[in-house]
Amino acid sequence: MNQILAACILVTGLSAQASLLNFTAGTKKLAGVTLSPSAVGSVQNSKGAATEVKVTLLGAGLREKKVLIVDAKVYTAELFSDNEAGFVRTADGALTSLAQNSNAVALKITMLRTVSASQLATSFEEALQANEISLEGEMKQLLTIVENSADGVSGKSLIMLMVKEGADATTIYYEDTEGAVKQFTGSSSLINKVMAIWLGQPVDKGLSACKSQLLQKVY
Amino acid sequence: MKNILILILISMFVFSCELTDAIKSVNKMPDKMDTLGDNTAEMERLTVVGKMKDEVENEKNYDVLAPIPYKLIAPSKKLAENFTLDEAIGWIYTRQAYVEGANVLDRYPDAIMYDENGNVLRIAPEAIAFEENKIGTASAISAVSAFLPDALINQMVERIYNGEKDSKTMIHILAMRYNFISQVMLKEKYAKSNLTVIGEVEEAIQYLYKLESIANLHFVNSINMRTTSFVIFQNANENLTYGVDVSEVHKYWLQIADGFERYLKVGAFANSDAQKQSQVVRIQNAKVMIDQGLARSQKYNKLKP
Fold this sequence. Notes:
The complex is a heterodimer. By secondary structure, chain A is an alpha+beta fold.
């Protein structure tokens, strides 16, 4: 009986850390990371209702960061949406079109070097500041989640999934590199704010190059 | 009898002379000991300089250069602390001349193979190693420039003021010092989330003072570096071409202030109330320095309305 109980507890624990999205196998690679053409998943919204999510790869970019002389590879970013046709592949149009025309947006970040959770949060914070997005309220909530989650360990992935709930709200799900998922529901502009990190005003040359790559179709 | 007396007198004279010499010699001994001590210290210094130069010039220490050139930090610091000003200028000049002057295609003319459309087909591994070595060298001289003691930097600035020889090299040293402290020490090593104990905060402040002293120089706009010699890693030309962005001074004061507020833990590892109290005093002092730095650096803040 004890063994059955232990097994039940184990299964419950594992399901709580099941991946937010299941990614299909792809054929193309970027910096050694295989790019997934699409992903599906099921999440619970803020009212507890199950929501099916099916997203398609819009683009993929390599985040490099210059340190002194060397451009260090930090992560690959894969951008997904449930409305590929509504994505405008231009530097000026990408962010607005993504936020307006998608009901679900996902970003999968696969780490190419280990970055601590607090450093990840700091880098997101700098990019948000460069886009003049307030770090209070819902963005503070997101940065706190990132900072208090697992480190970005080399070779592992973290996922941000944003799903609109009607016209006024968006729920964001953050899965860290250990598979733990945290979520909260914010405003309807959450996708626009979060994705400004990658598709808004680039904070440095590395993010600028990453943004250019994200605008290119992969499959 | 008379002869014996003369002999005794001569002996006494010679003995007294020897005694006088011996006494004089003993009197001079502390000076000689000092000289010997100085020579020993100088020998030790030269040995350290030699060993550390071997380390920072050794390409095995160039395999990890980002985010922090871990293997270069310790020998670069030791070398910088033991260099005389002239040695530092001479060594940095020759290494910088190698980075800027050595062209991979002079050494390996056929290193890069192209197809008929001008696309690169293959790059010879030895040519890649050649340029990687130059990148490592550039990192090493930047690190040494960053760790040179403030006293040497002050002398260097005086020489620049006076139009002394090697001014161009000394200006490059200031540029590399600023860039390394900014990009490696403050941006990476002392990133705000790393400011968890007071010692880290104090160290970050000290490095920021070094940046500030360069930003305050009246010829700051003339402090720059330019590199054009990389053929394979062309982004290294861009990364090694820079000036001094004085707005970073205010940015880093804000960073330290933020890290201080959010991440610093008072006496997290203290074993007694006295240790904790001592840290509280240091934290109070650091807070004063941060507030002063923030106020002082407002003039550099590009975003200031």
